[in-house]
Amino acid sequence: MADTRAKYRTEIQQMMFVSGETGDVSSETTTMIENIVQQQVWEMLRRATDLAARRGVRTISTDDLIFLIRHDKAKVSRLLTFLSWKDVRKSAKDSDEKGGGGGDAGGVDDFDLAANDPTLGTGPSVGTRNSKNKKAKVGLPWDVSSFYSEQVPEREDEEDEEAEEMNAATLQRLKQADERTKGMNAEEYLHFSECRQASFTFRKGKRFREWAGFGAVTDSKPNDDIVDILGFLTYEIVTLLTEEALEVKAAEDALKRESGGDEEKRGRKRRREPGLFDPPEEARTPVGPKHIQEAYRRLQKPDLKSRYMHHIPKGNWRRPLKLI
Amino acid sequence: MTSTPQRGLSNGYPSRPLPNGLHTPLSRRQASLTRNGAVIGGGLGAASAAGEDEEREEDATHALLGQRWADAEERIATLFDRDGRILKRRKKAASLTAINGPAVAAESAKTSAPPKKAARQVDDDYGDSDDEDEDSIAEKDTPLKAKGKAALANGLLPHAVQSPAPAVQLTAVRSNTTLSSGHAKSSEEVRKQLEEDKKAAADAAKRSFQTMFYTWENDRDAMLEQQKLDELDREVENETSAGNDGTGAGASSVANHGTLGSADLGASSLTLKHLIARIDAKRHLVQASDNQLRTLISEVRKGRSKWASEDRVGQEELYEAAEKVLMELKAQTEYAQPFLNRVIKRDAPDYFQIIKHPMDIGTMLKKLKTMAYKSKREFVDDLNLIWSNCLKYNSNPDHPFRKKALYMRKETDKLTQLIPEITVRDRAEVEAEERKMNMADADESDEEDDAPLASRGRKAPKKGVKGAPSSARKAPSVAVDETDSPAPPDVKPLMHASTSHLRNEFLRADSETQDASSAGFSTPPPGTATPLVNGVHGVGSQPDVMEVDGFGGQQSVLNAPQDDPDEDDTEFKTWKQVTKKDRAIAATERNRLFQGERGERLNIDEPALLRSKAAMRRWMRQQKMLQSQKGDAESDAHDDADAADSSALTGETLAEGIEKDEDSTLPDYYNPLSAIPNLQERWMWTTDSAGHAIQQSEKWLRMHPRERFVSSSSSGGTGGSILTRKMEANMRQMQETRKVCSKISLVKQMQLQGQTYQNQFQRYEPQPFVEQDIGTVVVSEEGPLIAPWLNRAALQRSVGKIFYHAGFEDFQPSALDAAVDLAGEYFGKLVEGFKVYREQPKRMVEGEKAVGKFSFEEQVLHTLQEGGLDLENLEGYVKDEVDRLGTKLGVVHERMKGHLADLLRPALGDHAGADGVGAFQDGSEQFVGGDFAEDLDEDFFGFRELGLAAEFGLENLSVPLHLLQNRMQSAFQAQHQGPTTSTGLIFPPPEPYEAISSENLGEMVGIAQDFFRARLRTAGVKGDEGVVRLVEDEELPLKQRFPKPRLPPTGKISSPRKRPIREQQQAAKKKRKLDVEGRAEVRLGGLGKPVGALKLKMPPENGVVEEPGKGETGTAAAMISPESIAGN
User: Fold this and answer.
1) At what angle are helices B23-36 and B488-511 packed, to 10 degrees?
2) Could A158 and B870 be called an inter-chain contact, meaning their C-beta atoms sit closer than 8 Å?
3) What is the average per-residue pLDDT within B576-595?
4) Is B734 in the A-facing interface, judged by CB distances under 8 Å?
5) Are residues B835 and B727 in the same domain?
6) CATH classification at residue A198
7) Mean pLDDT, to the nearest integer, of B460-470?
8) Mutate to test the interface with A, among B888, B900, B956 (most CBs of A within 10 A)
9) Is B960 found in the same domain as B878?
10) Mutual orientation of helices B376-393 and B400-416 as an angle, nearest 10°?
11) What does the DSSP 8-state code read for residue B1002?
12) Do residues B1019 and B935 share a domain?
């Protein structure tokens, strides 16, 4: 484990780039992010294992993982979308074997922007269009349909308005990406799209298992779904951290500008709002560890709901890690 | 009460005699006399002057008291009940002027009060300073002044004074009746006045109690002290009771008769004074001897004191005074406490080495009770012994007891002056003396006629000795006459007379005139004769008293009220003094209610403290008083209201005289029992005339309003919260959907299983949610019903509903319990937080209304925030978990219904029409191509295996469910008359054929009639009116039905139809029987039919036995019977 810190440096850098950080991020920062992500993954696995154990099962299921993030409905929605597309991909792969190669890593983003899973570059393969496969909805144990003993086939016409609502955040993110890529030339765009495919797990199964402590944190051999979900979630974490850190940095820069004069005119961090006299991207300082730290602190701030009954004395009580 | 006379007297009888302090009264008097400019020329003038002087002396202390009162008065700004006092003072002023009148030649001056008052005030001041001056220069001047005074006094004063001398306590039966009566009055007056003093002090204190708040800290001490006092009393009582009896008996037995003096009648002779005076006046007419008269009177008179004794002259007066003094000292609980009981060796091991003659108040009381004191001197000696013992033993100047002892000695000095100079003597002795005197003085005392009886008393000797008493004795009466206001003005001069007499005693003592008269005056034992001598001796025996405190003591007599040895402020001290006893009682009462070492438990056996009517009245009175005071202060405009108040007040106090009104000095807040307004009527304990308790509660009982324990909308009303309605709608929706679900699962089950049973599927019959209200509950209180288990159950129900609403069809009780506990705790915290925010101290806004710190909205929001909630959360819950869930549920329900319909008739969609005809309109491919098997998803026909599916492009080859109609119709449809299954029927089913019965047998086709008849006979079922009915196979219970004939795949019918076992058995039995019959028939065949007919008549009755066999024999028999019947 000597080179733990180096394990996902590239991936994290790519993810950060997609999330808006354009500069060259120092390895210190990426290491910090990596540690944070790792901690989160461990925690998630531990809790999921606990949940599974409570059910009397040793292997964790996707539901266990989803349950952990159930309060972030947008995220759950994105995850479900991701999972359903994954199903689609799988069945497509089954139906026509030829679709292999790029099937999984197709990287074809032009398929359907709305239906595309924007978070990972792993869009659905081409074959899905002509196949009769439809996007299977992933059911959750706390969905209404699971209230009843009988499972009912989905109907086409009933589109869940809830899901659409949940997609708002996703769309927002897509829009951002779209804005960013607008001014890109082909090369840049290629780089961007490559970066979008960065993943902790994709084709790095073994590395990820080691890194995430499978066997140590949870003693089960997780199935691919778990790993994929974790890949998705880690991506989310990095994105969130980066965005928050950028905000922190913007605030800091603004403060500096106000107090320290105008020589630092780099309040604009977003490319989509380019100013005439913006310094080139390379000139901007990347987010540093302190920004990440602050962002992490902000994200760890307990929300109101978790203060439930906090006025009951509980002795020496440590607030549990908050999953972000 | 006892303290009052002492104080008053101490003025007139100033300062404990010192060897060199003797001159003080004298000089003071001199000064005052000269100041007044009174010419002391004759007895008359002397008397009046003396009276005036006395008046002033008295006024000096009045001034002191008055100043204090004035202070209090100003503070409280009220006249509060002082009218009487003021009046009195005015009167005194008037009398003063009246007396002064002749001397100052201002005859007319007895009118207006205010100027007089002022004048008196001046006098007072002057007197004070005078006192001090005199005191300061006293020592030097003494001899001279004394001499001069003596010279002056010798002329007249002795005479003027001598007669009233024994005065105060002895109450004066004198030769001069007016004088005696006046005298009595004067002492009475003094006492009354001093009582008033005390009362006024108490009143002032009481008023201050209303403005000050006193706590209970000192109550415990007070209680303990009081307990000690009580103990002491009891002890003394116990120890002396036996002895008393003895002495009492002895005393009465030795009854020795002398003169009919008032002396031995004691103070109470006051009441009889007129009688005595009368008897004295008409002595010669009375036949009885003195002795007889005296016994008579002593028997008649009331309230004779316990000290009274016939044979011990002077005892009553002495002891009464002594007892008073002792009690008074004892009552100084702050100081007297260490001296109450004798010192125990355990407490102070070396005490008895230092103190040879221990003494304490308790012992003195005992001695008193056993009549151990012979004279005032002995008594006073004992008292002083106590203090000196203390001072001696506690030699450390800082010792707290020293302070107390010094204080007590001061008090003693003041008080002992009250005790008359009496030496108890045996009556025999007195009378002997008396007789001797009488003989000696018989000729020269003409005045004896005036007061023969009185003169024969203890005082008689004095008269005999006195040189020229007549003029002096008359003088006061003349003075009285002059003032021509009979009673009240009398007081002063007479007072004066008595006191001045005492002074004269000093004077004489000082000047060592000690003539026979003085000796006679102070009667037998010369040592105790005069107070002067007494004082000198008494004090002299304890030298340190003198040295330490002599002078100060003198001053403290006057200054006592201000001169507090204690460090407490005056008010607090007054409080402590005045209320000590009451507080002690109150504390004792409270204390009694508790038990355990530290009073930590309630003593349940102890009767409760009850409010008394008197106390309540007192409270009301005080409230009224305070109100009216306030009213006065505010304005006089409320006169009417005040009048009303006062009238109400008088009305209220009607009952007061009847009951014993224990007037407590404690303020209201000290006795919460009586200070609280009345209980509400419903809580009162009342009894009817028979003494039975009335159940008050019955009157107030009411039904607890219904539906407090159900959520408001569940009772069917449209009211209630929208949320509740929505949630219940959701739950109903779920139930409906579950019903559909159960049907679906049933259908699916039937698809899988070859055979289904009727009881295999439980019908899903959801019960509607009904919230049960509580039964009838009768309550007598306002407010919510507090019954924890009930409330918990209600909460449990709510939680259960929420569970159901969240999708749990059922749940473990433990889970429910846990959730209920959590919810309960959470709500408790919420409410607590709510309370905290609500009970923040109010603040005043510019308006006159006090406003809470938080508005209601703020309270709610803060509370929610504390509880980890906010409005968004709540709204989100309602929106997502209730509203959206509702729509989702609706969607799912529709889907389920559609699914069920598809299952039952996959081809019949909405377009299929009511009878399913429409299903064929789209070309009926399903029926042609077998596409309808798709839903079952199984290769029922084996087409797929055969490759047909690929060939014809069929995707679904399963058997359509509705082709399995048979099973479904028979089992499922029979019990579930669902709308989906019955929609196909547009034609009414034809009427079922009438069952074949014995009635309609004749209508049948002729050929079949016989068959039917046979069937009827064998398998017919007896109907209602004896009609035999044939049961169709379809109507038979399932198990008894004949299995339908089935053609095996081979196409060969191998075996005849199987019969049910029972049938077979019966058939077999019948067969055997028929064989026998058949044979018989065959045998009898040629003989004729009647036999057979006879035999065959039976079957209809035995028809049940005969089974409709299908065998040949059966048919043969059947064939036979109709014929035989027909043949008949």
Assistant:
1) 130
2) no
3) 75
4) yes
5) yes
6) 1.10.20.10
7) 40
8) B888
9) no
10) 170
11) G
12) no
Taking CB atoms and an 8 Å limit, are A148 and B892 in contact across chains? yes
Residue of B nearest to A73 (CA): B880
B402 within some domain: yes
Whether B952 is covered by a domain: the verdict is: yes
Identify whether A174 is part of a domain. no
Cα distances (Å, whole numbers) of residue A218 to A221, B628, B818, B1065: 8, 86, 29, 71
> B887 with B798, same domain?
yes
Same domain? For B898 and B929 the reply is no
Per-residue pLDDT band for B447 (boundaries 50, 70, 90) equals: very low
Dist CA B8 CA B379 (whole Å): 21
Name which residue leads in pLDDT, A26 or A313.
A26
DSSP characters over B635-662: -STTHHHHHHHHHHHHHHGGGGGTS---
Neighbours of B1027 (CB within 10 A): 14
Residue B556 clears pLDDT 50, i.e. is over it? no
State the CB neighbour count (10 A cutoff) for residue B405: 27
Can you give the residue range of the structural domain that contains B358?
A: 315-423
Q: Quick one: B891 and B749 in the same domain? A: yes
Query: Identity (one letter) of the amino acid at B243?
Result: G
Q: Residue B386 is part of a domain; what is its CATH number?
A: 1.20.920.10
Do residues B370 and B336 share a domain? yes
Does the residue A25 lie in any domain? yes
pLDDT at B820: 93
Assign B165 a pLDDT band (cuts: 50, 70, 90): very low
A35 assigned to some structural domain: yes
Return the minimum-mean-pLDDT range out of A145-149, B283-287, B538-542, B997-1001: B538-542
Q: Which residues of A touch B868 (CB under 8 A)?
A: 304-310
Of B19, B117, B99, nearest to B497 by C-alpha is B99
pTM: 0.43
Residue of A nearest to B744 (CA): A150
| Residue keyed to tokens 């499922």 | B972
Q: Which domain holds residue A230?
A: 2-98+107-142+184-262+279-301
Report the residue of chain B nearest A150, measured CA to CA.
B741
Confidence of residue A272 (pLDDT cuts 50, 70, 90): low
The most confident of the ranges A299-303, B31-35, B242-246 is: A299-303
Is residue A269 in a domain?
no
Query: Is residue A150 within 8 angstroms of chain B, CB to CB?
Result: yes
Domains: count for chain B: 4
**Chain B residues in contact with A166 (beta carbon < 8 A):** none
B884 to chain A: which residues are within 8 Å by CB?
A: 162
Do the Cβ atoms of B256 and B426 come closer than 8 Å? yes
- Binary contact (A144, B868; C-beta < 8 A): no
DSSP calls for B562-622: T--SSSS-HHHHHHHHHHHHHHHHHHHHHHHTEESTTS-EE-TTSPPP---HHHHHHHHHH
Which residues in chain A touch residue B867, judged by CB atoms under 8 angstroms apart?
A: 308-309
Q: Are B415 and B325 in contact (CB under 8 A)?
A: yes
Q: If pLDDT is split at 50, 70 and 90, which confidence band does B814 have?
A: very high
* pLDDT category of residue A314 using cuts at 50, 70 and 90: low
Provide, as residue numbers in chain A, all residues whose Cβ is less than 8 Å from the Cβ of B833. 311
> What is the total count of domains within chain A?
1
pLDDT for position B404: 80
| Per-residue pLDDT, B569 | 66
Domain assignment present for residue B937? The answer is yes
The tokens for A280 are 């080139």
Packing angle of the helix pair B177-211, B3-12 (nearest 10 deg): 120
Average pLDDT over all residues of chain B? 61
pLDDT for residue B169: 39
What is the per-residue pLDDT for A309? 59
Q: Model confidence over A126-180: pLDDT tens digits? A: 333 333 445 555 667 777 777 777 776 665 555 555 556 666 777 887 888 888 8
